[in-house]
Specification:
The complex is a heterodimer.
Chain A lengths: L4 E5 L6 H9 L1 H18 L4 H22 L9 H28 L1 H4 L8 H27 L11 H25 L3 H15 L14 H5 L2 H14 L7 H32 L1
Chain B lengths: L2 E15 L2 E2 L5 H9 L9 E14 L3 E6 L5 H8 L7 E7 L2 E4 L12 H11 L4 H15 L14 H13 L5 E5 L7 H16 L3 E5 L3 H7 L2 E6 L2 E6 L1 H8 L8 E3 L12 E9 L8 E3 L4 E9 L8 E7 L5 E5 L10 E9 L7 E12 L3 E16 L34
Parallel strand pairs in B: 4-8, 4-9, 6-7, 7-8, 13-19
Antiparallel strand pairs in B: 1-2, 1-3, 1-5, 9-10, 11-12, 12-14, 14-17, 15-16, 15-18, 18-19
Helix pairs in contact in B: 3-4, 3-5, 4-5
Classes of the chains: A mainly alpha, B alpha/beta.
């Protein structure tokens, strides 16, 4: 049996070999994701209930604050449904980006002791959180039928929206993971950005309430296209959706992935010596 | 000879600035740095953890890597196991490498033993199918069958270590890189670990083993590399290299003192040479623990005297502790000439490890006099092949404490009441 020869030098791990190696790490990716899922649901006292309670309670609060107190309009859509449908993609995005951002630091014990393609670490978070996304999506389905809204043919757009959502999450997550490993203050900036995001994205309100002259500026937040696109896939023409915003989100996601991957690759070479 | 690992001009550089890292640690500093006036930059100090390192390890070699703290052992292991990247040079590796830089890498306390076996196995480079195939073996070796579904945070530290090592021991790599993991666990488990490593080694696989335990290195390895300040100081047979590490360096088993232009002795008597001979009377640095060793000292009596020159040999351990001193029972006054004093230390008396021998001649007439005392003049290494040596027949495999490990007559009989 001939044994594989590997050359390790300052210039190894470039080009095609990098991606081939990543392909062989599929099982590791799967097990790390499984670990994250198991730990998450074992550690929390409420277990699975937490995955349900968090979006539900936030939705209740947002419906009260934005719908009742501020009295914003949600058109023909029940307000709580509007909020919850925004919560589904947002919670995945915010949770995963934060987790990815901290992933290299939290897993430093692993990274400094054993070699594997480092991309696996942030990617496992992206994968593991899909469980949460599935749970909230199922809840949403239940709510839709509870309110008697049902689903129309527009739902075929949902997979496209989720694809853009995941791409955007991956791009930003990788960038932040590498940045955070090099610069520790990123972990302080991250929660702040996410809090801002809650108010700058149409989660607690409909994009229709944003004044017309600001709509374009508002749409430059890549989350807007995703949330609006998702709501359009659920409620059809009852929800005002500007298709260019989803296209813009897609473009941002592609650019972020390109930047994220290349920055991650350049940073992973020195990360071990810094962590 | 086919190589397993070829290291060529390997170097690893770290940048240090007054104890801190050179780069800005925070994004804030980085951004502020952009606006700062370009003043004279703070000079970053280079630190080469490894430099111009070169060696080759043949397939099937068991190589011990030793050196003081900071010699570059850990850095070398990190480079070999690909955790860190070299700054210069290259490493060529043939075959699958598994590295064990720490026991329990990737273990998660919240997960059960079963879950951790899979997770850890995959992290260390096994496929899921491989883990499943070896699962029973791993569990049995670790002896945790009853606790498989318990979270490992409830394990005792011994159980935790056993399980972690067990997973790693079943990796089945072509090249195994191990760092000091044997320093953990209870004695019984250490023995199992050593046994397992020997088993891995005997299967024609290549083992790299970093340790502070010289006994383990000489027991397990057939080759040894001594690192000092990031370079290879010496490589060769474990006993030779271990002796060099302890500062002996007289690896030939014989030292001639007259030839150094330095005379050891006084007006009456002078030290000529010292020798360590194995049971076949060959100069040696490595002695089988079961076999006798001879220490010889050549000396010259230069003047006629009534003094009775008593040769005495001082056997010490690496820390400087005395094991014992030995001298002949009777000596007479000798006429001028060349003499050789020979002391036979029987087999099954010394413990495994390194001994230094100080060579001295004293006389005890009207006044006690030391004519010369060359401390640590000779050194040799006692190797325990773990094969029926004293104290090993019951299966005990751990290091045995003590300066000596003599074979003594024992009886165990039924007590008469």
């Amino acid at each position: 049996m001939s044994k594989q020869e590997t050359v390790l030098s300052a210039r190894s791990r470039r080009g095609l070999a990098y991606w081939q190696e990543l392909a062989t790490a599929r099982e590791l990716l799967f097990f790390l994701a499984l670990r994250d899922i198991l730990v998450k649901y074992k550690q929390a006292a409420l277990g699975l209930a937490w995955a349900v309670l968090r979006p539900v309670l936030t939705t209740v609060v947002f419906t009260l604050v934005f719908g009742k107190i501020a009295g914003l309009s949600s058109g023909e859509i029940p307000y709580s449904l509007l909020v919850f449908s925004g919560m589904v993609p947002w919670l995945y995005f915010a949770g995963t980006v934060t987790e990815c951002g901290n992933s290299l630091v939290t897993n430093s014990a692993l990274i400094t002791k054993v070699y594997f393609p480092r991309l696996v670490i942030p990617m496992s978070g992206v994968l593991a959180n899909l469980v949460d996304l599935t749970i909230t999506s199922l809840l949403l389905c239940a709510l839709l039928f509870w309110f008697g809204t049902g689903l129309g043919w527009h739902i075929v757009l949902a997979p496209v929206v989720f694809a853009v959502l995941i791409m955007l999450t991956v791009g930003l997550g990788l960038l932040l993971a590498a940045l955070n490993a090099k610069y520790r203050d990123v972990s302080f900036i991250l929660p702040f950005l996410m809090t801002m995001g809650v108010y700058l994205s149409p989660i607690g309100f409909s994009s229709a309430v944003v004044p017309e002259k600001w709509r374009t500026l508002f749409g430059l937040n890549p989350i807007v296209g995703i949330i609006d696109g998702f709501r359009y896939s659920l409620f059809g023409d009852k929800y005002p959706f500007q298709p260019w915003t989803l296209g813009f989100s897609f473009a941002v996601a592609v650019v972020l992935i390109a930047i994220g991957v290349s920055y991650f690759r350049s940073a992973e070479r020195e990360i071990v010596d810094i962590l | 000879m086919t190589y397993a690992i070829q290291v060529d001009n390997l170097g690893k550089r770290y940048m240090i600035k007054g104890g801190h890292k050179r780069r800005p640690d925070t994004l804030r500093d980085e951004i502020m740095g952009l606006f700062k006036k370009k003043g004279p930059k703070e000079t970053a100090r280079e630190f080469w953890a490894l430099r111009e390192l070169g060696f080759e390890i043949a397939e099937g070699d068991k190589v011990g890597i030793i050196g003081k703290n900071g010699a570059g052992k850990s850095t070398l292991l990190k480079l070999l196991s690909r955790v860190s990247e070299p700054t210069t040079g290259q490493i060529r590796v043939r075959g699958r490498v598994s590295s064990l830089l720490e026991v329990g890498t990737g273990f998660h306390p919240e997960l059960s033993g079963r879950e951790n076996i899979f997770l850890n196995g995959v992290v260390l480079g096994m496929t899921r199918t491989e883990v499943r195939r070896k699962f029973d073996e791993i569990v049995e070796f670790a002896g945790v069958a009853d606790f498989l579904d318990t979270q490992v945070k409830h394990y005792s530290s011994g159980m935790y270590m056993r399980l972690a090592f067990s997973v790693a021991a079943h990796l089945d790599p072509d090249i195994l890189i191990v760092d000091e993991v044997l320093a953990v666990g209870d004695a019984e488990f250490q023995k199992k670990c050593l046994g397992k490593m020997q088993e891995i080694g005997s299967g024609g696989r290549t083992v790299l083993f970093v340790s502070h335990s010289m006994q383990s290195v000489t027991s397990l390895c057939n080759k040894c590399i001594l690192l000092e300040k990031g370079r290879v100081k010496r490589q060769g047979s474990p006993s030779e290299v271990v002796l060099e590490y302890f500062g002996g360096g007289h690896s030939a088993g014989r030292v001639d003192f007259g030839s150094h232009g330095r005379h050891i002795g006084d007006a009456g008597v002078e030290l000529m040479y010292g020798e360590v001979l194995d049971h076949e009377h060959h100069p040696a640095v490595e002695i089988d623990i079961r076999k006798a060793v001879q220490i010889r000292m050549g000396f010259r009596i230069k003047t006629r005297s009534t003094k009775q020159y008593v040769p005495n040999f001082h056997f010490t351990l690496p820390g400087g502790t005395y094991a014992f001193v030995s001298s002949p029972q009777t000596v007479g006054a000798l006429p001028p000439g060349d003499y050789e004093a020979c002391c036979m230390v029987p087999g099954d008396l010394l413990n495994e490890g390194t001994y230094s021998v100080g060579l001295a001649i004293s006389s005890f007439g009207s006044a006690s006099e030391v004519h010369f005392f060359e401390q640590g003049a000779l050194s040799f290494n006692v190797r325990d092949s773990m094969d029926d040596s004293v104290g090993r027949s019951h299966g005990y495999g751990n290091i045995m404490p003590g300066a000596v490990r003599p074979l003594l007559p024992w009886t165990v009989t039924e007590a008469r009441s």
